[in-house]
Each structure stands twice: as structure tokens, then as C-alpha cells.
Amino acid sequence: MANLSDIIEDFIKKMFDDMPEGILEIQRNEMANYFQCAPSQINYVLTTRFTLERGYFVESRRGGGGYIRIKKLKIREGEFLKEIIEYIGESISGSEAKAIIERLWEEEVITEREMRILCAAINKYNLPLSPADQDMVRARIMKAVITALMDHEARKGGN
Amino acid sequence: MANLSDIIEDFIKKMFDDMPEGILEIQRNEMANYFQCAPSQINYVLTTRFTLERGYFVESRRGGGGYIRIKKLKIREGEFLKEIIEYIGESISGSEAKAIIERLWEEEVITEREMRILCAAINKYNLPLSPADQDMVRARIMKAVITALMDHEARKGGN
DNA sequence: AGTTTTTGACCTTCTTTGACCTTTAATTAT
DNA sequence: ATAATTAAAGGTCAAAGAAGGTCAAAAACT
Fold this sequence. Notes:
Largest interface: A-B, 35 and 36 residues
CATH architecture of the largest domain in chain A: Orthogonal Bundle
Distance between the termini of chain A: 45 Å
Oligomer: homodimer
Radius of gyration of chain A: 18 Å
Helix content of chain A: 55-70%
CATH topology of the largest domain in chain A: Non-ribosomal Peptide Synthetase Peptidyl Carrier Protein, Chain A
């Protein structure tokens, strides 16, 4: 984990621990200065790690007194899994799939054990197919599993 | 006598001696440089020697700060799950796979939820491939998942 | 002959940097 | 007071850099 983007990502995520509201404001230049990097690297981290699919919403304002505000989204039980299924679509890369699985765990939709099961099932070394087929099969597996989870929840809840 | 691939294999395996967690990270180019070989030879060694069947799990990431992570799976000898993996082999039909999953549930190796997750993952309707490929991919997924479960249990159970 | 290993050319993904741009607030000049 | 200017943010985009991946042909074993 030697790259700066990951370090910045972790740093920001830790800042959320002190923010019970789940809303955080940062100054781009201050942060860039702290990490001794180009300011645009902060944007890079935000656009690759703090996306909607990963459960964050980013707003900002320029000019004097400007800021970047990052909100950690609270999931809406009923629609959360449905949205993820839509996001997955027909094909998904290994790294995106992994991000989704991690998010499901963070949101406590799946257990750690289940996370491991899923990661194993979609790992490219375990899917001996052409890259394009891998992405397609991965999307199918992900959607099937999430659908199964939804069904399970529904049955439990409705009895 | 020993060819380069064997030497690299041994070298990597020795590196595990210093890693009590059984998780190792290497740099492909660094390693290729050390052994004065083509970088792709490292991939060759990984795909032929560090497979699930041999008890390893490989993940990687490209780009700056990229890496190849090799996990030596912790598996207790003589475990029931190991027999199942052998039984699965290279290819398995949907009905056989389903029977195995149900058996795992009956033996309380997996929860009901996990059973549903697995059944969804290996269902033929979710694997848009030729029948032969389906059976092969299904076997891979089953083995990967069972291996992940064994590793998870072994790590949890205080090594 | 058949299988395994080795090599190399070419590809994809992810990160970092920098030059240039836009928006907003604060200050200054009229 | 208002308009013009300056300062203070943040934004964009493309190029360069830093990994790792793939595939098939050639070479070396058995």
C-alpha cells in the first residue's frame, strides 16, 4: 500500500470517525500541502474513492472560504441492494466488484465470512475465462448473490 | 537441473518463512530483475505453482504502488472440506454442486444464508457459458469458496 | 512428439503532476 | 455605493510514469 492515493483515502476516512454526522469539510490546498502533492491529486482521490457507488457524496465551493464537503451516505434499506444491482449492469471489473463487496460489508449487509466467500468467487485467478467473459460472469454472480440476499431478507422480514 | 521457474517458486516459498501471517507482497518487475528473466515469467510461476489446489491465493493491482499479493492458505490437515475439494475436481454439474452445498449446510459448515449465496453463484442460469465451461467455472468457484472458508476458519481458530 | 518453460512484443490499469481555467469573496478606486 | 481589481479557493484535462497482464511463438525438456 505504498501509493499516496490510498494513504489520503485512509486519512480522510479516519476523519469521519470524529464526525458523527457523517459530514466532513476539507480544504483542498491545505490537504495537498499536508501530503506534499499536487492539489489535483486530492480531486483524483475524491473521484476514484469517494463516489456514489462507494457511498459518498461530494460537494464543493470555490473562492475565498471555499471548501470540499464529503458526506457519507446513509443507506436506504429497501433500495440499496437494488441500486447496486443496477450499477453492476452486464459486466464489471474485478476491482469494482471488490469495492462493492467491501461496501456491503461496511454497511453490514454481509458478514466478513460472506465477504470472503464472495471475493473468492469473483477473483480472476479463480475464473479461468477470457477477460471479457470474466467481467460478464462476475456481473452475473454478483447480481445473483445480491438478489438471493434480498430474497432472504424479504422472507425473513415478512415471515 | 532445476529450471528457473522451480527456483523462483522455491524462492517465493522461502519468503513465507518470515511471514507468520502467510501473506506476502512482491513486485513483479523487481523479482524479474532479480532473476534476470522476463516479467511474464513471474506470472507463469504464479499461475502454475501458486494455485488454489496448491493452497495459495493470488491478488494483484496495477499502476503506481501496484503489487502482487500471495496468500498462503491456512488449511488444517485431514479436514472434511479437503475431501470435498478433491471430489469436485476440474468440473462439476449443477446438481452435484447443489448436493454438496446442501451437505455443507447439513454438516453446519455453512449457514443457511451462505447456502443460498452459493447456490445463486453456481446456478447455471447465472453462468452464461457453454455447458462445459459452466461445469468448469462452477468447479472453480466451489473450490475457491470452500478454500476461503477453510482459511477463514483456520485463521480465526487461533492458528 | 508432446509438454513445459522462456521470451518478447504489445496492452490495460492506476497514479502522479502540471499547466491552464472558473468561481467566489474581499479589497480598492471612483 | 458601485464597479473594477485582486486574491483565494477549487476544477479540468491531458501527458507522463509506474505497475501488472496477455498471448503466442520459440526453445528446451522428457
